[in-house]
Amino acid sequence: MNLKNIEYIVKTITLVLIFTYLTDKVVFFSLNKISDKVFTGQSIGKLNHYIVLKDSLDFVVFGSSRANRNLNPEIISKNSFNMGADGRKLSFAATLIKILPRKKEQTVLLHIDPEKAYLKNYKGDDIQVLGTKYHRNPLIKNEIDKLEQADRFQKFYWSLGYNRTVLGIIKNYLHPNYNYKNYSGFDPIFVTENQKNIFKNILKNEASVKCENVFVINEIYKNYLSELKLFCDQNNKKLILFTSPKYNDQCKEDNLKFSQTMENMGLTYLDMTDYFKKNNLFEYWKDKIHLSNYGAEIFTEEFKQLLIEIK
Question: CA-to-CA distance for 197 and 184, rounded, in angstroms?
Fold first, then answer.
């Protein structure tokens, strides 16, 4: 290959990089402009809504769908929000807790599944959904980088942070799912007859579960819980961890071990796994880990009383 060919290739690559870089920034800032007007849906709307509200709240719930579907924050406080989201674990929730305002008194309720805390292969990948804020919020960027969960090209091509969210953002931009001004973040489950029948069949064919017998808390969980305790202690926040009810928890050792670990770390932990055990009506459930709207209301009322006792 002669020198002219090499020069041509270098120039072509350089022009392609410049063009794609500039195009990426146009796309990124266009998506920012659109997404900033979206306040519904889990693609980015609920996150935007939380960011707008977070400085004014006095009670906030974080966690997975078991937080989102099982606890109505408005029963506990009118100035509240449930930031639970489907499929999220600790890195997502912990990062959003860390962006709460400094020195403002708030109660932070964090849902934890003990069995998830003992997963060996958890790498914090649920934080990737915050990639839309990677180049817009330094704290979120730092948390994503710390867990090495950024796309390898994201520092150059900023719009990659919108991967897998664009359709949801556009859909909710054009047709919002609900009036976000009346939305507390709580998404109750109104169980259909078909869902009831499916759950009945699951219970009829329920098999025994092999329980784990080795309990070493995941390092990411351990580090984040320590960091959250420090953050909340320093910023006038009451941090309370909890586990919401299960229809039938066949493995109890992980709950006991996790409860002991939380006590050793100086964290307040409420294990509500067996709350309905003595009065377990079918109508309380959508499936084995998610309450119906009826069950969620009963559970939240009880939880409200527990929080009063803690205070």
Answer: 30
